[in-house]
């Protein structure tokens, strides 16, 4: 199925973007909360060990090293999560800017990993090395790809695989998202949000369906830009 242009103005689009931003930040906040909870639990264990030591029960250096290592691991994890959120947030700074789709989509997939883990689904990202930069709307691209990932997650079963790949085919920036297929072909209602994003990006969308695997192929224009007036 090939994307066709949408002539009507979609007044719900700003709310859609806010909803997307909210979904991403909510997922990240849950992940950060888990990090803080683990650090808090580890700190409680350390307090118990200090109290035990005051009661002449000796703490071993190995035990202390293990606790310190656990705190350090969670601290680094938290800083990585914040870095991902910061990169995601700044992708909305300008409606049209120069960016690297591979880097943007890798960050998005890392953020979406928690959602995939909750459904015990494998989420894989692949990108050609040293991918070229393009000019366009990185926030809108992420929202469009996220809509596809979420559509796959909605029907995915345990151990299913969702793959996001960015490549340059014949100097044309291309994104391929593959995953499990629904029982019947994707309907317009299933992909409405995707189609609107594709239209605004000035891109092309092709959906290949078979009973086992579906593939969404997004072809970005060589000089994308934002087609909204």
Structure description:
By secondary structure, this protein is α+β, with helices and mostly antiparallel strands. It has helices at residues 13-54, 61-90, 101-118, 138-155, 192-201, and strands spanning 97-99, 122-127, 134-136, 161-169, 172-180, 204-209, 213-219. Strands 2-4-5-7-6 form a five-stranded mixed sheet, with helices on one face. Strands 1-3 form a two-stranded antiparallel ribbon. Strand 6 (204-209) and strand 7 form a beta hairpin. The two termini are 26 Å apart.
Topology:
Elements: H1 13-54, H2 61-90, E1 97-99, H3 101-118, E2 122-127, E3 134-136, H4 138-155, E4 161-169, E5 172-180, H5 192-201, E6 204-209, E7 213-219
Parallel strand pairs: 2-4
Antiparallel strand pairs: 1-3, 4-5, 5-7, 6-7
Helix pairs in contact: 1-2, 1-3, 2-3, 3-4, 4-5
């Amino acid at each position: 199925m090939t994307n066709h242009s949408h002539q009507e103005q979609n007044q719900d689009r700003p709310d859609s973007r806010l909803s997307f931003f909210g979904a991403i930040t909510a997922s990240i906040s849950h992940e950060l909360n888990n990090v803080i909870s683990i650090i808090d639990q580890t700190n409680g264990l350390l307090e118990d060990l200090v109290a035990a030591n005051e009661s002449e029960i000796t703490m071993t250096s190995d035990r202390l090293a293990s606790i310190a290592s656990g705190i350090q691991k969670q601290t680094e994890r938290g800083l990585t999560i914040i870095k991902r959120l910061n990169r995601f947030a700044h992708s909305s700074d300008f409606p049209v800017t120069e960016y690297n789709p591979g880097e943007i989509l890798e960050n998005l997939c890392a953020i979406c990993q928690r959602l995939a883990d909750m459904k015990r689904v494998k989420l894989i990202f692949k990108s050609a090395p040293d991918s070229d930069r393009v000019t366009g709307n990185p926030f809108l691209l992420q929202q469009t790809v996220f809509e596809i990932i979420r559509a796959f997650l909605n029907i995915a079963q345990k151990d299913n695989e969702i793959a996001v790949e960015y490549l340059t085919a014949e100097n044309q920036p291309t994104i391929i998202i593959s995953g499990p297929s629904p029982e019947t072909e994707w309907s317009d209602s299933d992909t409405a949000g995707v189609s609107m994003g594709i239209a605004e990006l000035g891109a092309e969308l092709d959906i290949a369906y078979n009973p086992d695997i579906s593939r969404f192929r997004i072809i970005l224009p060589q000089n994308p830009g934002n087609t909204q007036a």
